[in-house]
Design goal:
The complex is a heterodimer of chains A (152) and B (331).
Chain A (H helix, E strand, L loop, with lengths): L3 H15 L1 H6 L2 E3 L18 E9 L2 E2 L4 E15 L4 H20 L8 E14 L8 E15 L3
Parallel strand pairs in A: 1-2
Antiparallel strand pairs in A: 2-4, 3-4, 4-6, 5-6
Chain B lengths: L14 E6 L13 E2 L10 E3 L2 E2 L14 E2 L3 E5 L2 E2 L2 H12 L10 E6 L5 E15 L7 E9 L1 E4 L20 E9 L3 E13 L2 E3 L2 E2 L2 E2 L2 E3 L3 E9 L3 H9 L3 E8 L5 E11 L17 E4 L8 E5 L11 H6 L15
Antiparallel strand pairs in B: 1-2, 1-8, 3-6, 4-5, 6-10, 7-10, 8-9, 9-10, 9-11, 9-13, 12-13, 12-19, 13-18, 14-17, 15-16, 18-21, 19-20, 20-21, 20-22
The chains are: A alpha+beta (152), B mainly beta (331).
């Protein structure tokens, strides 16, 4: 069944995948859809990796018939090696995509998408005992603001 | 407070619809209902029956005469700027009939314990509060003055209130500015625009007010947050021509514009004397010496691009009619 949260997530994923910089650089996309099982294992072979996953949802009572749902999506960018620059390049490209999506609301304004805001970005450097090199993990939170009527 | 069902009498249990009346105080025989969404507890139109106690000089210790005067029915209603509702309220506030009167409306207000019908409601004033550039920062607060209130148990919350035609995202504030002699611009970040219809109350007839007459319209502008500089203060002191424009946008492309081509300062007791520096943002009042006092437009077409002519053109070429310009395209 179609619902705005899936529509918004998939639209943002499609926008990211259509970006030429990201399309050329990324080895593996984690789409969190149906199909073959993808494990969330951060192997060097799948880097650079981008995952777009649902992260959080909030709810405000806006009026007697409309609620405001800020939906958070987590975009994870993973790059192999201690050099932080490739990750930052991918992040910059992803932010540009988010800004473009914010300008035209990905065509979902009629469904109630009122705004798209990048929220916070976190960098983590991480390595397990078996790894020869560390990897950079960038978490970008993007908030989609939905105004929905009588959803529940 | 939770009712019997355990649900609070809040949010989705309340509904409001309005319809323009053909004759004052009577439901339109062919009503066109417009559902108006309301904020949490935003509908405060309530009847009161004030009594007065005349001095008869003829009473002992045990009380005196108390007489019911007339049913008083006033109150406000808070609403976000949903595009269709904003258009409806702008028409309700600014439209005048052949006798220069405002139109009256019937309200149906549903709450589980007390569904009511309110007859003969006219807009006494409309305040447009703009407090910032985010969502839900534009609020319409119409204050209604009505004739009669009745119980309306026939109201069905499921079938009588139709919200299907309403866009679910309200208008958002884009920008506002003040022009001085069409040259310098002052950036306005937050303001309240109040349109007052100066409603006069007619005499008592069977315990209800017999008529409500709209008087001279006053449009006031309170600059809550404006980047006033020395030049703007000087212009305000010297009475230079000021004009105001506000624009609101919408992700679906709807547009809402407000223009006050001519603004003057209304002096109040608290305002500084002419020789002193004005410290706070003054209350500005719209005039209509050369053209209409207010020009407004709402475009409801999806991805609409109809805009009002720029402010400078408007002041330069005064319009002959005082009626508000409405750019309305139905979706």
């Amino acid at each position: 069944m179609a619902n705005p949260f899936t529509d918004g997530r998939q639209a943002l994923l499609a926008r990211l995948q259509a970006d030429p910089t990201l399309d050329a650089a990324v080895t593996e996309w984690h789409e969190w859809g149906s199909g073959l099982i993808q494990r969330y294992d951060f192997l060097p072979a799948s880097c650079p990796l981008i995952s777009v996953a649902p992260a959080a949802l909030d709810e405000d009572d806006l009026s007697n018939i409309t609620d405001r749902f800020p939906q958070s999506l987590e975009i994870v960018i993973l790059t192999d090696g201690q050099d932080a620059e490739p990750g930052e390049e991918l992040l910059a490209a992803a932010l540009a995509v988010v800004q473009q999506a914010r300008a035209d609301r990905m065509g979902l304004a009629a469904e109630g998408l009122a705004g798209i805001n990048p929220q916070s970005t976190q960098w983590d450097i991480y390595a397990t005992e078996r790894d020869p090199r560390p990897r950079w993990l960038i978490r970008l939170r993007v908030e989609l603001i939905w105004y929905l009527r009588e959803l529940l | 407070m939770p009712g019997l069902t355990g649900n609070p009498h809040y949010s989705y249990h309340r509904h409001l619809r309005a319809s323009r009346e053909a004759t004052f105080g009577a439901v339109n025989p062919a009503p066109t209902w417009q559902a108006l969404p309301i904020l949490g507890d935003g509908y405060k139109l309530l009847a009161t029956a004030p009594r007065f106690r005349p001095e008869t000089n003829f009473h002992g210790y045990d009380g005196n005469v108390s007489i019911h005067h007339v049913l008083e029915l006033t109150g406000s209603h808070t609403m976000l700027a949903w595009p269709e509702c904003a258009l409806y309220l702008m028409h309700a506030t600014l439209d005048r009939d052949a006798n220069d009167d405002v139109y009256s409306y019937t309200h149906d207000y549903y709450t589980p314990p007390d569904p009511r019908r309110i007859l003969g409601a006219v807009v006494e004033s409309l305040a447009i509060n703009v407090s910032g550039t985010g969502d839900s920062d534009v609020q319409f607060v119409p204050t209604w003055h009505a004739r009669d209130e009745r119980q309306n148990d026939a109201l069905d919350p499921d079938s009588d209130f139709d919200y299907t035609g309403l866009t679910c995202i309200p208008f958002m504030f884009r920008d506002a500015r003040i022009e001085i002699d069409t040259v310098l611009s002052i950036d306005v970040e937050a303001f309240t625009l109040t349109i007052s219809n100066a409603i006069s109350v007619g005499p008592n007839r069977l315990g209800r007010v017999s008529y409500l007459i709209a008087g001279e319209r006053t449009i006031g502008l309170d600059l809550t947050r404006a980047n006033l500089d020395q030049e703007s203060r000087q212009a305000i002191r010297l009475g230079t021509n000021l004009s105001f424009e506000a624009r609101f946008n919408h992700p679906e492309g709807h547009l809402f514009q407000l223009q006050l081509p001519e603004l003057g300062v209304e002096e109040s007791d608290e305002s500084a004397s002419r020789t002193e520096v004005t410290k706070e943002a003054p209350r500005l009042v719209a005039a209509n010496c050369v053209g209409p006092d207010i020009i407004w437009g709402i475009d409801l077409a999806p991805g609409g691009t109809t805009t009002l002519p720029p402010l400078a053109t408007t002041t330069g070429a005064p319009t002959t009619t005082g009626a508000p310009t409405t750019t309305t395209t139905s979706a």
